[in-house]
Design goal:
Helix content: under 10%
Number of strands: 13
Strand content: over 45%
Mean pLDDT: 81
Shape: flat
Length: 139
């Protein structure tokens, strides 16, 4: 059984300053799903969902017993609005992905990707060697 919370008018930062842009937006609502121990948790969808004024889901976070992660693959954090999309893959609360970038960000024709295993960031070359992937598939 999941406990459910609803909060309204929460300010969130969309984007990352290190990539040269950021913006704040006011969310109309924030929905939280927790397990009986009060930890963020949901197996059949995101445990945290923020909606903007147009009532579309702009930010989703998937948690398993209080730790960022997602059963069956897919990003544990997704953020999107009219010109920015961010996806982050987590396992046990650490950025982690073995079949591609753990962090991707797309905005107005720009793109940034980074490669992580167990919370450690690797260059594309290092990641290809560690995972046995062809570097041409990663670029």
């Amino acid at each position: 059984m999941n406990l459910y919370e609803l909060h309204t008018n929460k300010e969130l930062l969309i984007g990352y300053n290190e990539f040269g842009h950021s913006k704040k937006t006011i969310m109309k609502s924030a929905n939280y799903y927790r397990n009986k121990n009060g930890k963020l948790h949901r197996l059949d969808g995101p445990a945290v969902i923020y909606n903007n004024d147009e009532d579309w889901d702009i930010w989703k976070e998937y948690y398993i017993n209080g730790k960022l992660g997602r059963i069956g693959g897919g990003p544990a954090i997704t953020k999107a609005d009219y010109d920015t999309e961010i996806n982050e893959y987590y396992e046990n609360d650490k950025l982690h992905r073995l079949d591609g970038p753990a962090h991707t960000e797309h905005w107005n024709g720009g793109r940034h990707s980074s490669y992580w295993i167990d919370g450690i960031e690797y260059s594309v070359d290092e990641y290809a060697k560690k995972t046995g992937m062809n570097i041409n598939e990663l670029i």
